Amino acid sequence: MSEHQGVLSVRSLSVSFGGLVALDRVDLDVAEGEIVGLIGPNGAGKSTLVNCAGGQLEPTSGSVALDGVPLTGKAPYRRARLGVGRTFQRVALFPELTVEAHLLAALRAGRQRPGRWSELVDHARPSAAEARQIDEMLGLVGLADQHDTQVTTLPLGACRLLEIARALIARPRVLLADEPSAGLDRRESAMLASVLAQLPAREIGVLLVEHDLGLVARVCDRVVVLDVGHVIAEGSFDGVMETAEVRRAYLGQGVA
Ligand SMILES: Nc1ncnc2c1ncn2[C@@H]1O[C@H](COP(=O)(O)OP(=O)(O)OP(=O)(O)O)[C@@H](O)[C@H]1O
Ligand SMILES: [Mg+2]
Fold first, then answer.
1. Structural domain boundaries enclosing 27
2. pLDDT per residue over 124-139, tens digit each?
3. Does ligand 1 come within 6 angstroms of the Cβ of 58?
């Protein structure tokens, strides 16, 4: 595997933190409209990989490309404009802003120079076109009646769905979702699954990092299993869960 293929392609990606090798020559592809599950025990390197794709972290070696365009060295906002959308393992929203303001800022950030997010929303109400996109996106994630809600008052599950809406409103080519179901109740998890299931039709590829293996089994086309920085299996969910390597990696975590 050397040429960059697919929407997102990761080639021979290695990350060391001092003496700790968090990723060791990892290859991974996400095709257009494909949902790839990235699973593995705690500390396997899943968030490290997502951070290398999102631009929050530069790898020690190896490369990440979007539609064949190398992302190395590009700041997160530039990757976002190229089509990398993401959510964070720890929710990263602005408590003082409303739900609508987050989406408005994300829409406008794609068109303006990077600056403080508040500057993107202070000046003007949404145009009719912006309002339509915001309505559509909040409807998609089940937050249609929450336009003016301040994020401080939103439950965690709604925050996670808002993060997904914020990533999607910028029309990404690929969505990197780092444990989006953490802290969601059953209704919110069902909403998350239904949102993810609609992304292939929008030609958005998804890299889904998840500990909820039920969700992975339901929505993923393919699964890649990481363990201490190595890909130990990939293929269908049922196929990888049957391999001895994966059962061993999950031993003691109550999964296999
Ligand atoms: N900034 C950092 N500095 C030092 N070590 C780090 C840093 N970030 C991650 N690590 C280490 O790298 C390894 C991989 O971490 P990572 O967060 O990618 O795992 P993960 O698969 O996302 O785990 P989890 O399922 O718990 O979120 C772990 O050993 C972690 O302690
Ligand atoms: Mg993680």
1. 8-250
2. 688 899 999 999 999 9
3. no
Separation between Cα atoms, residue 79 and residue 172, nearest integer Å: 10
45 CA: nearest ligand 1 atom? 18
Q: Are strands 205-209 and 222-227 parallel, antiparallel or unpaired?
A: unpaired
Q: Tell me the mean pLDDT in the region 25-49.
A: 97
Q: Count of domains in the chain? A: 1
Strand ranges of the sheet holding 8-17, from the earlier edge strand across to the other edge: 20-30, 8-17, 61-66, 69-70
| More confident call, 5 vs 79 | 79
**Would 211 be classed as within a structural domain?**
yes
Residue identifier of the C-alpha nearest atom 7 of ligand 1: 17
Neighbours of ion ligand 2 (CB under 5 A): 46-47, 89
For residue range 168-223, what is the model confidence (pLDDT) as tens digits? 999 999 999 999 999 899 989 999 999 999 999 999 999 999 999 999 999 999 99
| Any domain includes 244 | yes
Mutation pick for ligand 1 pocket among 21, 23, 47 (CB with most ligand atoms within 8 Å): 47
Residue 256 lies in a domain: no
- 133: domain CATH number is 3.40.50.300
The answer to whether residue 27 sits within a structural domain is: yes
- Main-chain dihedrals φ then ψ at residue 246, nearest 5 degrees: -70, -40
